[in-house]
């Protein structure tokens, strides 16, 4: 269990990146969802021991992050948002190198590297240099590297951004499999990633946790309160004055609008809520949804 208590981080210029973050994250895949600038990467870097919070505490299975950094690093696997430059060295040689740095040698090292290459579907490409890999292969290499040493806490920061649907699914499958064994924290602004694979999640905005829990009950809370209506674009202002609009989408010349209401708005149809609706309605409730036009 990963336990975060009252984590705060203020950057120079009084930018409150994290404000009193409290979270309990159990074994499995946990999605941290939030718009750009919400504070996700700052939180990920703190959990990866790369940055100090101003206040608060983090413990993982009894290890205190601020007092026992090295102990936490022993059980940590981190895939950052930006990997930096990719080496010209082959994937297999790089993994061997990082395994050696983690104190894994000899036959054991061969076995670990082989199993990671197979797990991430890179066995066939193992002798190619990483800088020639596609975006998806680079991400899979990144997770292979993060998995050296059997981490018990895996942190991945926006891993599927820019991946094509097949690569995204491959990556999701790798994470899902890991989630059956250890704590995997997935930070993303892609709602579908969380909906597809994370049983639990938190929604962040402007440095705060706005909502957290199991996906299904959060979705069910919107049942009977979510409505869709198709209108002309010019009618949007009037509707906005009357209802809480959470999203709009152009559809066959008109505009499909989703809105929240306890009673049935005239001409609207009751809609089946999704995690995306939970996400938008949470941002709306917290005045963090940009106005529609
Ligand atoms: N080194 C820094 N110095 C000053 N401000 C920073 C620094 N890093 C991040 N910020 C600010 O802190 C806030 C949170 O940024 P952070 O990168 O953690 O958010 P994020 O949710 O990961 O966003 P994104 O999805 O765009 O990466 C933003 O307002 C950002 O501009």
Automatic annotation (TrEMBL):
Keyword Transport listed? The answer is yes
What GO annotations for molecular function exist for this entry? Answer: ATP binding; ATP hydrolysis activity
Q: Which UniProt keywords apply?
A: ATP-binding, Nucleotide-binding, Transport
One Pfam match: ABC_tran
Q: Where is the ABC transporter domain?
A: 2-231
The cross-references to InterPro entries, in alphabetical order and at most eight, read:
AAA+_ATPase, ABC_transporter-like_ATP-bd, ABC_transporter-like_CS, P-loop_NTPase
Q: Where are the transmembrane segments?
A: none
Q: Which family does it belong to?
A: Belongs to the ABC transporter superfamily.
Q: What is this protein called?
A: ABC transporter ATP-binding protein
């Amino acid at each position: 269990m990963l336990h975060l208590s009252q984590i705060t981080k203020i950057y120079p210029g009084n930018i409150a990146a994290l404000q009193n973050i409290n979270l309990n994250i159990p074994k499995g895949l946990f999605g941290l969802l939030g718009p750009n600038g919400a504070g996700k990467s700052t939180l990920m870097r703190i959990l990866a021991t790369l940055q100090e919070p101003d206040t608060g505490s983090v413990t993982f299975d009894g290890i205190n992050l601020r007092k026992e950094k090295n102990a936490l690093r022993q059980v940590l696997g981190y895939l950052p948002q930006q990997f930096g430059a990719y080496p010209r060295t082959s994937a297999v040689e790089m993994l061997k190198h990082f395994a050696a740095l983690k104190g894994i040698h000899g036959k054991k090292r061969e076995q670990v590297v082989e199993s990671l290459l197979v797990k991430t579907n890179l066995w066939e490409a193992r002798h190619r240099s990483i800088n020639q890999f596609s975006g998806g292969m680079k991400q899979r290499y990144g997770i292979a590297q993060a998995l050296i040493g059997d981490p018990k806490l895996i942190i991945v920061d926006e891993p599927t951004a820019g991946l094509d649907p097949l690569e995204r699914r491959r990556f999701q499958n790798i994470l899902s499999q890991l989630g059956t064994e250890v704590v995997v924290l997935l930070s993303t602004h892609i709602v579908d990633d969380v909906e597809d694979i994370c049983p639990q999640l938190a929604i962040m905005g402007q440095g705060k946790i706005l909502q957290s829990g199991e996906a299904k009950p959060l979705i069910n809370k919107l049942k009977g309160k979510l409505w869709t209506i198709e209108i002309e674009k010019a009618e949007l202002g009037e509707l906005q004055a009357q209802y809480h609009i959470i999203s709009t989408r152009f559809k066959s010349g008109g505009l499909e609008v989703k809105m929240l209401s306890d009673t049935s708005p005239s001409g609207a149809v009751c809609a089946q809520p999704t995690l995306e609706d939970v996400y938008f309605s949470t941002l709306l409730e917290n005045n963090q949804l940009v106005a529609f036009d």
